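ok new one. same drill as before - C-alpha cells go in, u give me an amino acid for every spot. 454 of them this time. try not to just spam alanines like last time pls lmao
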C-alpha cells in the first residue's frame, strides 16, 4: 500500500509530538536509589508515569509492570506486535551548549539528554500509533508500545516483564539504533579476570591503572614503579622520574568495544614500552597475558576463539580496564562473536588461557546472539517499509553492539538513526534533527502497521 495518508497524518502532529518529547526530556531519568514504588529511583519512575499518562490521554489501553516497564496498546486480536523503547538516560554530564533538560530547538535540531536515545523515538511512537488508529487502518494484531526504565544499566526492566509471565510479542522492533535494520547482534561474554597479589615480584610496582569502561578501548594508562626502569620511547608514551619513582603514561585512541580495531589500546602500548623490564611476580604474569594473548590482535586468534562468518562478521576482543595496586589485580575482556561461534568454546578457551597465567574469573556475564534471518517475515516487512520511504537499497546489518532487541526472540533494532548520521547518544549536546525525527516516525508508523497485518 501507499503510506501517503499515514505520512501526512504523522507530519500533521509535529508540534504536538515535539511538545510531548520535550515534556519527557524535562525529566532527569538517570537511574537512582531504589524506593518501594520506584525500583530504579525517582527519575525513571517519573518518566514511566509521564508516558503512562500520555498513553491514557491519547486513548490507549495502558499497563504498568512493577513500575519497571509500561505499555500502551491499540487494536484487537490474539497476537500482539511491539515497539520497545526506553525512557531512562545516562547522566547529563558536562559540556552542554544548551540546557540538557529543556528540549530546545536550534537550527532545526532538538537538544537534550535522551532526545536521540531513546525518548524521541519512544514518545514519538505513541503518535505513530495514534495515526494508525485515527485513520482507521485495518490491522489483525494488537500494537503495543513498550517502554522500559533500566536499559542503560542492564535491561533488568524487560527481564522482569518476562519473568512476570507478561505477554510476549510475536514480532517487534526497538527504535534504538540505526536503519536500515539490524538482523544480527553478536553474542557477548564479558570477563573480569584477576587475583589477589601474593607474589610482588622483583621490581615493586606501586600501581598500574587504565580504562574507563569494559566496552571501551583503554584510552589512557599509567604505571608507577619504585626505582629507575628503562622505558622504550614511542608515540603516546611519557616518562617522568620523581621521588625515586618512574611514572610511565600512555595515551591511546578510544573506540567502542565492539570495534576495538578502530582504537589504539593505551594499556598495551604502555606494557610494550616496558616489555624488557623483568618485573617478576604476579604483575609480570598479567603483563605477559596481555601482551602474549592479546597484543595488537583484536580477533581472539591467540586465545583460540577467532570465528569468521561471512554473514555476521568475526570475533572481537577488547581489553577495557586494567588495575594493579600491589594487593589486587584485574583486567576486563569484552568478547563478541558471530553466528558460527560456539559460546561454550569461547568461554572454555578464554578461561584456560587466563588460568595458565594464574588469573581467575572474578566476574562473568553473557548475552546470547540475536539472529533473525534476512528472509524472515519481520525483516522483510521492515526492509520493505524502509526502502519505500527512502528509495535506498541498503542491506540489513550485522553489528557487534547490543540493543534492547535481545530481550525478545523475534525482535530487531530498526532506526531511528539514518546511514551516515552523527553519533550523538551519550554525548554532550545530544540532539536529533527534527526533520529526521519526523521521517523516522513516519517509517515507524508504516512498520507498525505492516507488522500488525497478517
Amino acid at each position: 500500500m501507499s503510506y501517503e495518508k499515514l505520512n501526512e497524518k504523522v507530519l500533521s502532529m509535529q508540534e504536538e509530538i515535539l511538545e510531548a518529547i520535550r515534556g519527557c526530556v524535562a525529566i532527569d531519568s538517570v537511574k537512582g536509589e531504589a524506593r518501594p514504588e520506584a525500583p530504579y529511583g525517582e527519575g525513571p519512575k517519573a518518566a514511566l508515569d509521564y508516558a503512562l499518562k500520555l498513553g491514557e490521554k491519547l486513548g490507549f489501553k495502558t499497563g504498568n509492570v512493577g513500575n519497571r516497564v509500561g505499555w500502551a496498546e491499540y487494536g484487537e486480536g490474539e497476537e500482539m506486535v511491539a515497539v520497545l523503547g526506553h525512557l531512562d538516560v545516562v547522566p547529563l554530564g558536562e559540556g552542554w551548549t544548551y540546557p540538557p533538560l529543556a528540549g530546545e530547538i536550534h537550527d532545526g535540531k532538538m537538544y537534550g539528554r535522551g532526545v536521540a536515545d531513546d525518548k524521541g523515538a519512544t514518545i514519538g511512537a505513541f503518535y505513530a500509533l495514534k495515526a494508525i488508529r485515527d485513520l482507521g487502518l485495518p490491522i489483525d494484531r494488537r500494537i503495543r508500545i513498550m517502554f522500559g526504565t533500566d536499559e542503560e544499566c542492564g535491561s533488568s526492566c524487560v527481564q522482569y516483564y518476562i519473568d512476570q509471565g507478561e505477554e510476549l510479542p510475536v514480532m517487534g522492533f526497538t527504535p534504538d539504533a540505526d536503519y536500515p535494520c539490524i538482523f544480527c547482534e553478536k553474542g557477548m561474554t564479558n570477563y573480569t579476570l584477576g587475583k589477589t597479589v601474593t607474589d610482588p615480584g622483583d621490581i615493586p610496582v606501586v600501581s598500574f591503572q587504565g580504562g574507563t569502561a569494559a566496552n571501551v578501548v583503554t584510552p589512557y594508562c599509567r604505571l608507577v614503579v619504585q626505582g629507575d626502569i628503562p622505558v622504550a620511547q614511542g608515540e603516546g608514551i611519557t616518562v617522568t622520574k620523581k621521588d625515586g619513582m618512574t611514572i610511565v603514561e600512555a595515551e591511546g585512541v578510544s573506540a567502542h568495544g565492539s570495534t576495538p580495531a578502530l582504537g589504539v589500546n593505551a594499556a598495551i602500548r604502555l606494557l610494550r614500552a616496558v616489555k624488557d623490564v623483568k618485573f617478576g611476580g604476579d604483575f609480570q604474569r598479567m603483563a605477559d597475558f596481555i601482551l602474549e594473548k592479546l597484543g595488537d590482535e583484536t580477533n581472539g586468534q591467540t586465545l583460540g576463539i577467532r570465528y569468521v562468518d561471512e554473514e555476521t562478521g568475526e570475533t572481537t576482543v577488547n581489553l577495557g580496564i586494567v588495575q594493579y595496586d600491589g594487593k589486587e589485580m584485574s583486567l576486563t575482556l569484552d568478547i563478541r562473536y558471530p553466528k558460527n561461534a560456539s559460546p561454550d568454546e569461547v568461554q572454555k578457551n578464554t578461561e584456560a588461557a587466563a588460568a595458565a597465567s594464574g588469573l581467575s574469573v572474578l566476574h562473568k556475564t553473557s548475552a546470547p546472539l540475536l539472529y533473525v534471518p534476512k528472509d524472515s517475515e519481520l525483516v522483510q516487512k521492515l526492509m520493505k517499509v524502509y526502502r519505500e520511504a527512502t528509495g535506498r537499497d541498503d542491506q540489513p546489518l550485522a553489528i557487534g553492539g547490543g540493543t534492547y532487541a535481545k530481550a525478545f526472540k523475534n525482535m530487531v533494532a530498526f532506526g531511528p538513526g539514518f546511514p551516515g548520521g552523527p553519533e550523538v547518544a551519550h554525548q554532550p549536546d545530544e540532539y536529533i534533527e527534527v526533520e529526521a525525527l519526523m521521517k523516522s516516525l513516519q517509517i515507524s508508523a508504516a512498520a507498525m502497521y505492516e507488522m500488525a497485518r497478517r
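The chain has ten helices and 24 strands. and btw The radius of gyration is 24 Å.
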